[in-house]
Design brief:
five-stranded antiparallel beta sheet, single chain, mainly beta, 33 strands, six-stranded mixed beta sheet, disordered N terminus
Length: about 400
């Protein structure tokens, strides 16, 4: 199975649509965690020379061999023209040698960990990358994107409310500037930028060109072109003590494995905004009184339920979050339970703290993240800006700047 990220490519003043194809894992691979220095991320971003870490659990009771490969990509996430030895020192297609088996859990699993760069693989170029994991039959199991940058320019970002009265209470606008102490040469041809909300590629705006040049500063003062729907804060649950009900877990049932039943949720699109701190859709593996949560945390069937979302026609409702890299598929699809009058769904998840929300997938495949949760300009979102540079006649897009800001300080 493959996942298609819908990426908005902006070549001012025209818009077009690009795609990044990401393979999603088989069901026996769970809890894929990709982290940079700030913790688990949908899109890890590191300075050249810093480290990222990928980990995942394998639930098939086999201590199999897994291998990693790394590809370099352009600003629009198409594959670059660089050969491997131009962006890597050392090798890829190397076996992941670090793994541990679970300890005292009902669900047996092996926990694999890969840290990059390492003594066999290091990076020589900034840019967009994709890390792919293969089995010993050379079958691609899953892949994840990440970014490496070099800080050659300074990025300043401000988040503002929409200036369109129609969306003033629902949208957030990202405006920013880039300062190059060395000055700019041919920025129209060499510089582009991309914007990410909560580092989620699903709604990224790519290839944004500057509007103004003021000395050493490029300015991006768009309104609608760099606006995002505000969304809503995520629901959450925590089952770090898997044997008792707490933090949104109504009750527990122990069968062959644990079952955690969450309190029933309600749509929020027609409610007023309520501040609820979240981690923007991500999750953390946690467990009480454990030396190593990575191998001591158990798995549980987590039961979600949603009341009052009947007017969806031919569309489907899904659980949405970083626990599976915001994938929408048959595993996340909810079904209507007539006896309870709710939509419900159970997903097999490792103990921890999870953010999630409910989204609607239309028959044409479009994922509407607002139909159930609503959009509010007050919602706390993180916004990331990456600055890409391709020298005249160059063969790849380097990343020379990175900036990130929260919308908590949103202004008019």
């Amino acid at each position: 199975m493959t996942r298609h990220y819908l990426l908005f490519l902006m070549l001012f003043p025209f818009f077009s649509l690009g795609q990044l194809e990401i393979t999603t894992p088989p069901r026996y691979i769970r809890t894929i965690v990709f982290s940079d220095s700030n913790g688990p991320q949908s899109l890890p971003i590191i300075r050249l020379g810093d480290q990222i870490q990928l980990s995942f659990d394998v639930l098939n009771n086999e201590e199999s061999d897994y291998f990693y490969r790394i590809t370099h990509h352009n600003a629009d996430w198409s594959k670059s023209n660089l050969s491997i030895n131009e962006y890597l020192n050392g090798f890829d297609d190397i076996r992941i040698s670090t793994y541990q088996n679970s300890l005292s859990t009902l669900q047996l699993y092996s926990h694999y960990t890969l840290t990059l760069p390492n003594n066999r693989t290091s990076f020589t170029k900034s840019g967009n990358y994709i890390l792919s994991i293969y089995n010993d039959d050379n079958q691609l199991l899953f892949s994840r994107p990440f970014v490496i940058f070099q800080a050659e320019v300074k990025v300043s970002i401000a988040v503002k409310r929409s200036r369109e009265l129609e969306n003033i209470n629902e949208k957030q606008i990202v405006q920013y500037s880039i300062v190059n102490p060395k000055g700019w040469q041919n920025p129209d041809q060499t510089i582009s930028t991309s914007i990410f909300q909560n580092r989620n590629l699903d709604n990224a705006i790519l290839g944004v060109k500057h509007q103004y040049v003021l000395g050493n500063e490029l300015q991006y003062r768009y309104n609608d072109a760099t606006s995002f729907w505000g969304g809503n804060e995520y629901f959450y649950f925590e089952n770090k003590d898997i044997r008792v009900a707490n933090n949104a877990v109504e009750f527990i049932d122990l069968q062959e494995v644990y079952h955690s039943y969450l309190y029933t949720d309600f749509p929020r699109y027609n409610q007023t905004y309520t501040y609820n701190p979240d981690i923007n859709g991500q999750f953390l593996t946690t467990i009480f009184n454990a030396r190593n949560p990575n191998i001591e945390a158990d798995y549980s069937w987590v039961h979600f339920s949603l009341l009052g979302a009947n007017n969806i026609g031919d569309s489907t409702i899904h659980i949405y979050g970083g626990f599976n890299d915001f994938l929408v598929n048959d595993e996340t699809q909810m079904t209507y339970n007539a006896s309870r009058g709710v939509f419900d769904c159970a997903i097999y998840l490792k103990q921890g703290f999870y953010n999630y929300k409910y989204v609607v997938q239309n028959p044409d495949g479009y994922i509407d993240t607002s139909a159930i949760s609503g959009d509010f300009y007050q919602t706390e979102n993180n916004y990331t800006v990456l600055v890409y540079y391709r020298k005249l006649g160059g063969r790849y897009d380097a990343i020379i700047g990175f900036g990130e800001v929260s919308s908590e300080g949103i202004s008019n």
